């Protein structure tokens, strides 16, 4: 279809103004790689110009790896005091919100702990009153220092005991400030520490768990890492802070951007080094263990380049069209080098410095030249 459109343009050029030929014949002595057009013919197709430019060419480094979770974002949930699992609704892959109840445990020791706290709190009030009374008596020398010191020690001992019991209650998510004789319970809830999803579930209803047992493994997706492997020969092309674009094999059209945050210091047996990259934005489709492909733009040498659309290929060789005047163009062979970001390196470019080179319309000129040759 593209060729049909190009030849249609050539047909229009050929018929424009009632002329028989698309391009005028070159002047005597000119080679057959020169085209000359009338003003009317030039206006019948898009044409723009450029010059050699000095730019840095970026090459694409393709590597692969898997999504990983840093230790601080992979949380193992256990119970501080143990107990029987009364209920839980979690399943692997399920999402949850911070502060949501993820399990309820039940045990006699929760009742005993609440009883001990309330008892210590009552005894503390009595000890405080006795301490204040002995303090006043001691000031007036109505009681001995020994009695006063004993009252003070009893009060401080109970104060330490109550504080210790408060912390134990907080470990099982029972608020001491709200605890009273009327709401002593036998259950303790477990709350989600962040927004995330469940990686693994190790318990079921009715199972007894000790403090050393892991109930759930939870993942915080806000800080997922991409663990990539780069071969030794390409290691010098990778730097911290470089941007990357990653995609999975299942959905190559969906790109995830990010930056490299860490480069490993050990070369594996396969002569590869691990690099860690961080995604710019969290996504629920990214899960630990997912295989990913990544592309990193690597800067090459600072060199003289031309836009890709200025380069045309004919019989396996590369050419550009140089403007000899406003309406005359010469097809000139060039040697190309690295390419990237829409630019192509030109090797040995001295003969093109300062020249006016066709950018848009180069292929149209090529087809016109081929048509003239035929």
TrEMBL record:
This is Efflux RND transporter periplasmic adaptor subunit. Residues 226-296 form the CusB-like beta-barrel domain. PANTHER family: CATION EFFLUX SYSTEM PROTEIN CUSB, SLR6042 PROTEIN. It comes from Ravibacter arvi. It holds the Pfam family Beta-barrel_RND_2. Belongs to the membrane fusion protein (MFP) (TC 8.A.1) family. Keywords: Transport. InterPro entries: Beta-barrel_RND_2, MFP_Cation_Efflux, RND_pump_MFP. The keyword Disulfide bond does not apply.
């Amino acid at each position: 279809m593209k060729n049909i459109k190009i030849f249609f343009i050539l047909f229009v050029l050929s018929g424009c103004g009632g002329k028989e030929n698309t391009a005028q014949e070159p002047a005597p002595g000119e080679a057959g790689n020169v085209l000359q057009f009338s003003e009317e013919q030039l206006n019948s197709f898009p044409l723009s110009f450029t010059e050699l430019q000095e730019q840095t060419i970026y090459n694409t480094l393709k590597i692969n790896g898997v999504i990983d979770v840093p230790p601080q974002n992979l949380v193992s949930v256990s119970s501080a005091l143990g107990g029987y699992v009364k209920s839980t609704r979690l399943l692997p892959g399920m999402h949850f919100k911070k502060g949501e109840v993820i399990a309820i445990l039940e045990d006699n020791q929760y009742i005993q702990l609440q009883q001990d706290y309330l008892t210590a709190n009552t005894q503390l009030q009595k000890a405080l009153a006795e301490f204040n009374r002995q303090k006043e008596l001691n000031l007036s020398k109505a009681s001995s220092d020994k009695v006063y010191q004993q009252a003070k020690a009893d009060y401080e001992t109970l104060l330490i005991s109550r504080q210790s019991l408060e912390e134990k209650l907080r470990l099982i998510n029972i608020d001491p400030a709200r605890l009273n004789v009327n709401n002593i319970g036998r259950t303790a809830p477990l709350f989600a520490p962040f927004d995330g999803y469940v990686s693994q579930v190790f318990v079921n209803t009715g199972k007894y768990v000790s403090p050393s047992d892991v109930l759930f493994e939870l993942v915080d997706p806000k800080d997922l890492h991409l663990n990539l492997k780069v071969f030794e020969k390409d290691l010098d092309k990778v730097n911290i802070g470089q941007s990357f674009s990653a995609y999975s094999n299942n959905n190559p059209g969906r790109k995830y951007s990010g930056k490299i945050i860490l480069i490993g210091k050990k070369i594996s047996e396969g002569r590869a080094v691990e690099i860690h990259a961080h995604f710019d934005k969290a996504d629920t489709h990214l899960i630990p263990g997912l295989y990913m492909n990544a592309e990193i733009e690597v800067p090459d040498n600072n060199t003289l380049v031309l836009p890709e659309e200025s380069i045309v290929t004919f019989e396996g060789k590369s050419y550009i069209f140089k403007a000899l005047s406003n309406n005359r163009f010469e097809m000139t062979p060039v040697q190309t080098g690295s390419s990237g970001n829409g630019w192509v390196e030109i090797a040995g470019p001295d003969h093109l410095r300062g020249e006016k080179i066709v950018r848009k319309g180069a292929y149209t000129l090529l087809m016109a030249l081929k048509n003239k040759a035929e």
